[in-house]
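Protein of interest.
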Amino acid sequence: MHGPATSLSTSVSAWLLVLLCAASGAYCLRRAGRAGGGAAAGEAAMGFGMALMAVPLRLGGGWQAPVLGVVFCGAALHALWLLRGGPHHAHHLVGSLTMVYMALAAGTGTGAGSSAHAHGQGAGLPLLTGLLLVYYAGYVVLGGARLVTVGGAGGARSTGGAPGAGGSGAPAGPAEVIRACRLAMGMGMLAMLLTM
């Protein structure tokens, strides 16, 4: 009873993760086009890269892992460049390096979507994976708490400093949607790390 049912639920979960990451990436891309922001473009690349990495099918003989590794090495360099604007861009760097790590693991057959993990057999959870899980779990919990706090206060207080936050009792504005997208990508990263 575990075989087909488990396979189906895993496939559905993977496709939902693909959809969530792609939708977040599309929103960030739209925002980057309007605002011309480098951080939004980086978040869009992260969303689309996560969507591609989460696809449960292995398309075209393993080109995904090396391509994603190269793309996210470039994204890590971009995040380093953004750090000159302040330490609040450090999360972009961590995210890009995490994607490089997962792409390398996927390329060796030990990454997300793989059923047999060579580095995990008999050795337990790798230290780096464990540290990243702790980081993203904390990021998701704090991000969710901030989103609930801002939403509960009617958007009167902005914790992220993004434009568009404010007003009393207004529906979710751009700042709240941005926080929700970041939270969704954090949850997606956490889910992909859990499969390693």
Summary: DSSP finds six helices and no strands in the chain. Residues 25 and 44 are 4 Å apart (CA to CA).
